[in-house]
Amino acid sequence: MHQINDCAFRMLCKKSGAGLVYTGLLNPQTKEKLNLKDKPAIQFACNSTKGLKEFIKKYDKNISLYDLNLGCPSPHAKSSKIGYFMINNYNAIKDILKTIKANTKKPLTIKIRKIPEENLKQIIKLAEKYCDAIGVHPRTQPQGYSGEPDIEFARKVKSLTKLPIIYSGNIKTKEEALEKLKEFDFIMIGRASIGNPNIFSEFADKRQRRKFNFLDWLKLYKKTENKQSFNQIKFQALNFTRDFEGSAKARDILAKTKNEKELLKLIKTLSKTF
Ligand SMILES: Cc1cc2nc3c(=O)[nH]c(=O)nc-3n(C[C@H](O)[C@H](O)[C@H](O)COP(=O)(O)O)c2cc1C
């Protein structure tokens, strides 16, 4: 998830037991210096092969898996004709998958939403030629992230291909995870992990049960990030301080802090509460 999945956050998710962690959407032509110290899965958002070869050459040794996003529903995706808005652009999808496949030995996947059957069949054909798995978040584009995910659609994808299916949508508890794993090969946790990397330790029983907090994130952020930003520190502080009694009021104050010193003072007071 964009901005949420920074390197330090991904590391905490991994320490808690996540098997694979993803970057947010990345344009392969990005000039930004990426922090991939944790060897994450990379998620591309693009509709041409521009920059792919160079990106892979530069970063391949630090990447666990490549994913092409075909599901992003945002206005930005719409105006750039990427994510969900390229599901009819089979030529581009094919060229991108073919180019990635030709330039790396790492696994390759795509991630889709609930899409019309004709698109689904064409995309599965391409995936079967180039990919190792398909991620499915079975909500329509207009649904965004709300409303019920359509499990029947995910079942249909599963029935149409032998590729492993990674199911994504509303998984918040171990029971829900186990339920989905009866039908699908892997599961993906999104929102329930925001500010709560510890959720993965509930699923991975043998992993350490120590609960990570914002200060653990900050320590890792300082250790792993060359270019630190107070905006990102505040953003993650707000994520890690959700859902405790009085959190709404505390987060209002947190949002108004102007520097790290002020923020840490407040966090230390709050950590007595949560
Ligand atoms: C703030 C936010 C950012 C997201 N960013 C991405 C993204 O960059 N790439 C992606 O494939 N999905 C992204 N998603 C979708 C999630 O990966 C996931 O498929 C969806 O939220 C449903 O799963 P959940 O109920 O576990 O969150 C994002 C979702 C949210 C709420």
Fold topology:
Layout lengths: L6 H10 L5 E5 L14 E4 L7 H8 L5 E6 L4 H6 L9 H14 L4 E5 L4 H14 L2 E4 L14 H10 L4 E4 L5 H10 L2 E3 L10 H5 L10 H11 L5 H11 L6 H9 L4 H11 L4
Parallel strand pairs: 1-2, 2-3, 3-4, 4-5, 5-6, 6-7
Helix pairs in contact: 1-9, 2-4, 4-5
Flavin mononucleotide binds next to strand 1.
Describe the structure.
By secondary structure, the chain is of the alpha/beta class. The protein folds into 2 domains: 19-188, Aldolase class I (TIM Barrel); 214-270, no CATH class. The chain is built from 12 helices and 7 strands. It has helices at residues 7-16, 52-59, 75-80, 90-103, 117-130, 151-160, 174-183, 199-203, 214-224, 230-240, 247-255, 260-270; strands spanning 22-26, 41-44, 65-70, 108-112, 133-136, 165-168, 186-188. The protein has a 7-stranded parallel beta sheet, with helices on one face. The site of flavin mononucleotide has 18 residues, from strand 1.
Structure summarized in a few sentences:
It contains twelve helices and seven strands. With 274 residues, it is an alpha/beta fold.
Shape: globular
Helix content: 40-55%
Helix/strand order, N-terminal first: HEEHEHHEHEHEHEHHHHH
> Which class do the helix and strand fractions yield?
alpha/beta
Percent of residues in β-strands? 5-15%
Strand order of the largest sheet: 1-2-3-4-5-6-7
The third-level CATH topology of the largest domain is TIM Barrel
Helix tally? 12
Total tally of structural domains: 2
Q: What's the rounded overall pLDDT mean?
A: 94
Keywords for this structure?
274 residues, alpha/beta, TIM Barrel, seven-stranded parallel β-sheet, 12 helices, binds flavin mononucleotide
